[in-house]
Hints:
By secondary structure, this protein is mainly alpha-helical. The chain has a single domain (30-174), classed as Orthogonal Bundle (Putative cytoplasmic protein). It is 49% helix and 11% strand. The protein is built from 6 helices and 3 strands; from the N terminus they run H-H-H-H-H-E-E-E-H. The chain has a 3-stranded antiparallel sheet with strand order 1-2-3, with helices on one face. Helix 2 (33-49) packs across helix 3 (61-68) and helix 2 (33-49) crosses helix 6. It starts with a helix and ends in an 11-residue tail after the last helix. The mean pLDDT is 79.
Amino acid sequence: MDPTANEIASANEQPANRQPALPKRRPKPAPDPEKAAHLVRRLNDLLSASDHFGRHAALTPEEKIAKLFLASAEDKAKSDFNCTASDDVRRQVPLLFQAIAGVMEENCGLMIQSSAEINIEGFGRGLLYSGRVILVMKSLRAGFPFPFTSLDKTVAYGVACVEEGLAFLEKYKELTSVHGLLSLEG
């Protein structure tokens, strides 16, 4: 072994042949199963609405999402390599934000709207808003976190956005309880 490695190891009080332990990551909590089921149902409904001839009507919701929504590993590798977003990935962004808005509507009773866009270079944004109040704003840089290639990651991201928006909405409702949420006069 190199003598300088032994000196450095003795200075750090670690054996030279052992590398320092990496910090352990905390496991991410599982998304709320009820909200996850609602998100899968909403996403499935949106995909069914665009299936004009019912070609995929016999598929289960998970199979339909895998076939019509999720990006392939090739799309992900291509977008990771040169930061461009394919047409499939560019269709994925607004669909997911529409599904998230639908789940938020079910949970809060207000009309939630979505606006999402991504350009060919992978830059864009996703907004969820109600009236004049922006509840969730996500920036997309080089397409990240899109494209989604697994249903679990899609659901985890969607449920996290739903919970973030509902928490902000609840906080905002408390602060503006005198005037109401949508009738602020500026």
